[in-house]
Design brief:
The chain has about 130 residues and is mainly beta. The chain has one domain: 2,3-Dihydroxybiphenyl 1,2-Dioxygenase, domain 1 (Roll), CATH 3.10.180.10. Helices cover about 10% and strands about 40% of the residues. An eight-stranded mixed β-sheet has the order 2-3-4-1-5-8-7-6. The longest helix has 5 residues.
Length: about 130
């Protein structure tokens, strides 16, 4: 059972684990103006580069092999210093992989909700390609 926190307390992910908010991924079904296709992942994304709040809209190709929960339920993404360590004791939904140069990601499942964990190489400071 998770320990209780007071209403003004931050979640353990940030307060205890040191994870840093990165983005909110929201699945959707209809094409949006300005989205770009990430062919090797089978998704279309929009907003990541421009949203002041870190909102990323995601539309999945029909043959994308992402789990149904990732395709249908919004996820929070956190930047972590050590992905392998962050995954210890967690229910891994999508195993660690590298969707782009200098980035390793994995998804965990927390109480039925997907959570993305992202590890960046120190030199990963290039703009996302459009």
């Amino acid at each position: 059972m998770s320990e209780q926190r007071l209403p003004a307390d931050p979640p353990a992910a940030t307060a205890r684990y040191g994870w840093r908010y990165h983005h909110l991924g929201i699945p959707h079904a209809s094409p949006l103006a300005g989205e770009r296709h990430v062919e090797h992942l089978g998704i279309h994304v929009r907003g990541f580069e421009t949203s002041p709040y870190g909102i990323e809209w995601m539309r999945f190709d029909p043959d994308c092999d992402a789990p149904e929960v990732v395709r249908t339920v919004p996820h929070l993404a956190f930047a972590v210093d050590d992905l392998d360590r962050a995954l210890e004791g967690k229910q891994v939904l999508i195993a660690p992989n590298s969707p782009s140069r200098g980035v390793r990601v994995a998804f965990i499942l927390d109480d039925g909700a997907p959570v993305e964990l992202m590890e960046f190489e120190d030199n990963c400071r290039e703009p996302v390609p459009r």
